[in-house]
Specification:
Amidohydro-rel; dihydroorotase activity; globular; alpha/beta; about 450 residues; Metal-dep_hydrolase_composite; nine-stranded mixed β-sheet; TIM Barrel; single chain
């Protein structure tokens, strides 16, 4: 017998509106949405959402969960639990693990790990290199989220810097090609200048000068030029500069766009003014830049030149992060705090709830053609998040769920709290407690 849950008296945020209503869940799916639904039997689990808001589960299109090979920092089990607690019900994980996800065999190994240990729905990007085009051509587009190319700042051999290979990859697939854009030559030149002056202990405030606006814009504009030449479907990850926002358009609906962009939580929250206090804890690639860049990123997000908000969740141990500049790795953990941070921006009048849902739920589903997720619709999977907008809490060591045990948001008080997370119809998280139920599924794509 299918389990049945009825969510009553909710403020439902979906498809550009907020309305009061009930949601009936049967098995894994949303059966009915209406102003008022009465339970048909005593077996129905009724959840009262009076005064609270129901959002679709967020879809994070860029995470690094570090498994296999880097599990001292994080793993799929720990980070997916943190995601669920943060209202992220589906994630797309990146290929720069150890070994890298650049063969179909290694891709399938990651799917097997996630099948056993993930608390959230999952898929993976397949990594492109200068020499794995044959493997790319073997991919079934409905079985994988897309391709990831490092056009700068890669690990291992994942920097794709052969122009001929790059053009062949762009011509060879109709999948979304997601790219990290920073020009290596520019960065190396900038780094030498500062290293010659300071040695390894370069002050962190110079990180955005080393990984500069010029490095980002040069790489992004080249990628877009190639996408236009080849007709490829291009998605540029983690924009960090105002200048890059000029490269994108809001003239057509997202479903028809061939060139799209993402912005990450840290580039919307922090600026170079925060380096003095946060130090290498906010060292990311691309770098957090000026407050003026942050404002221009917000403008482009709100006028739909930028399509998606993601995390680029990339944990490192605190010991690693506390090293001098040249040894401190870039990246930080964010999946548990991304949605609360955006809800904080709602409280500050920066963004509407409807826009948060559009950028974190609807648009990733459209962009990657995720099947039956990202919306509150009858017939869709019941991935739902209940939020109390007036239940403040402060991020501290006791409530951080990341394996690395720290957060760039430590000490921050958020007004909004995620109280319940439903995954494929199962209540998997409630008031800081996780159920033992195994509900996560491999994402499928409508291609």
């Amino acid at each position: 017998m299918k389990k049945t849950t009825l969510i009553k008296n909710a403020n439902i945020v979906n498809e550009g509106t907020v309305f009061s209503g009930d949601i009936l869940i049967e098995g894994e799916f949303i059966k009915r949405i209406a102003e008022s639904i009465s339970p048909k039997s005593a077996d129905v689990n009724v959840v009262d959402a009076e005064g609270k808001y129901i959002l679709p589960g967020a879809i994070d299109d860029q995470v690094h969960f570090r498994e296999p090979g880097l599990t001292q920092k994080a793993n799929i089990e720990t980070e997916s639990k943190a995601a669920i607690a943060g209202g992220i019900t589906s994630f797309i994980e990146m290929p720069n693990t150890n070994p890298q996800t650049t063969t179909i065999e290694k891709l399938e190994e990651k799917f097997k790990i996630a099948e056993k240990t993930s608390s959230a729905n999952y898929s993976f990007m397949f990594g492109g290199t200068n020499d794995n085009l044959d493997e790319i051509l073997k991919l079934e587009s409905g079985q994988v989220a897309g391709l990831k190319l490092f056009l700068g700042s890669s690990t291992g051999n994942m920097l794709v810097d052969d122009p001929e290979v790059l053009e062949k990859i762009f011509k060879s697939t109709d999948m979304v090609i997601s790219v990290h854009c920073e020009d290596e030559g520019t960065i190396k030149s900038n780094f030498k200048k500062y290293h010659d002056t300071y040695g390894d202990d370069i002050p962190i405030k110079y990180h955005p000068e080393i990984r500069s606006e010029e490095a980002c814009y040069l790489s992004s504009s080249k990628a877009i030029e190639l996408a236009k030449k080849t007709g490829a479907r291009l998605h540029i990850f983690h924009l960090s500069t105002g200048k890059e926002t000029e490269l994108f358009s809001n003239k057509i609906p997202l479903k028809d766009k061939k060139i799209t962009a993402e912005v990450c939580i840290h580039h919307l929250w922090f600026s170079d003014e925060d380096y003095e206090k946060k130090g290498t804890l906010i060292k990311w690639n691309p770098a957090v830049k000026k407050a003026s860049d942050r404002e221009q990123l917000w403008e482009a997000l709100l006028d739909d030149r930028i399509d998606v908000i993601a995390t680029d969740h990339a944990p490192h141990t605190i010991k690693e992060k506390n090293n001098v500049y040249t040894s401190a790795p870039s990246g930080g953990p964010l999946v548990q705090h991304a949605l609360p941070a955006m809800l904080e921006m709602y409280h500050r009048g920066k963004i509407t709830l409807e826009k948060v849902v559009e950028k974190m739920c609807h648009n990733p589903a459209i962009l990657f053609q995720v099947e039956k997720r990202g919306y509150i619709r009858e017939g869709y999977y019941a991935d739902l998040v209940m939020v109390d907008l007036n239940n403040p809490w402060t991020v501290n060591k006791d409530n951080i769920l990341y394996k690395c045990g720290w957060s760039p948001f430590e000490g921050t008080t958020f007004k909004s709290r995620i109280t319940h997370t439903f995954l494929n119809g199962s209540l998997v998280y409630q008031n800081s407690k996780f159920s033992k139920e195994k509900a996560a599924k491999r994402l499928t794509f409508d291609r």
